Amino acid sequence: MSKLKVAVIGCGSISKHRHLPEYHQNNDVEIIALCDIVASRAEAMQEVYGGNVYTDYKELLAKEPVDLVSVCLPNALHAPVSIAALNSGANVLCEKPMATTKKEAEAMIEAAESNGKHLMIAHNQRFVRSHQQAKALIEQGAIGKVYSFRTTFGHGGPEGWSVDGKDSWFFKKDEAIIGAMGDLGVHKADLIRYILGEEFTHVSAMVETNAKENITVDDNAVCLLKSESGIIGTLTASWAYKVNESNSTIIYGEKGVLRLEDDPAYSLIATYTDGSKVNYELGKIQSNEEGKQTSTGVVDHFVEAVKTNTTPLIDGKEGKKSLEIILAAMASSETGKTIQL
């Protein structure tokens, strides 16, 4: 079988550290095109991975016979560029959050369906082994009825990670639309939906900009969520965790508690009401810290879905449900009301 041809649009940090290395390691694909409005960024990636360089994604889509496109751009561009790529006949892997409005997300789903192409959103948390194990334990009834949870994603902010540092698009309302909630919160919304296996019905939140100066987006948020079966819990997203990154989730159930990515030695600790305890060593979660770049599993899953023509784990509909929780949180914070989904 001939290799699937890949184009990566946007050559910033997420491309450099995640998408391009993971495509490069996959034997079923070939990187044929790179695009960035800053030509030197695409050229730097070309030196490593080859492919033709473009500064205009429309030109790339018109000229290159691509099968797969990764959209690694500021949030405001996710929908228009993904739709253009789907309409050109490519399958699309889009970074999170998939869009900045429900209407945009629906237009992306429609573009995928009408063109018979796959759309996947790059929510990597579903591929973390501790998260998959926790989901399995809950499904098996290991902790009985689930009552509550707390899930958090926080670090010092994207300036240490983004290619533009303090001048990053992440901090600009017109490009990012949503700040820490779009960067980190949406990952946790997707994760908690996945682990619990149910949807959320109510969202209440306080979303603030209180940690960074000269930014026009949120950087600190605490949300209350209620699921369809009545599970209540908190979701926090922050660019204000200055010392240690936190990417932990704790699930409280009738027969036990699951602690995920909350202990330095064990990625999952299950403690049961009968006094027993199980420590799982399942490998480390993804981190943005130098030297901890391991494969997310996202690209391999996307390639496999396209190759076998199967629906990816996080398709457009799944991405939209996770986005809607974040949009509801923003609306709740603005109105002071609980938003019903």
Automatic annotation (TrEMBL):
<feature type="domain" description="Gfo/Idh/MocA-like oxidoreductase N-terminal">
    <location>
        <begin position="4"/>
        <end position="123"/>
    </location>
</feature>
<dbReference type="InterPro" id="IPR055170">
    <property type="entry name" value="GFO_IDH_MocA-like_dom"/>
</dbReference>
<feature type="domain" description="GFO/IDH/MocA-like oxidoreductase">
    <location>
        <begin position="131"/>
        <end position="258"/>
    </location>
</feature>
<dbReference type="InterPro" id="IPR000683">
    <property type="entry name" value="Gfo/Idh/MocA-like_OxRdtase_N"/>
</dbReference>
<dbReference type="Pfam" id="PF22725">
    <property type="entry name" value="GFO_IDH_MocA_C3"/>
</dbReference>
<dbReference type="GO" id="GO:0000166">
    <property type="term" value="F:nucleotide binding"/>
</dbReference>
<dbReference type="InterPro" id="IPR036291">
    <property type="entry name" value="NAD(P)-bd_dom_sf"/>
</dbReference>
<protein>
    <submittedName>
        <fullName>Oxidoreductase</fullName>
    </submittedName>
</protein>
<dbReference type="InterPro" id="IPR051450">
    <property type="entry name" value="Gfo/Idh/MocA_Oxidoreductases"/>
</dbReference>
<dbReference type="Pfam" id="PF01408">
    <property type="entry name" value="GFO_IDH_MocA"/>
</dbReference>
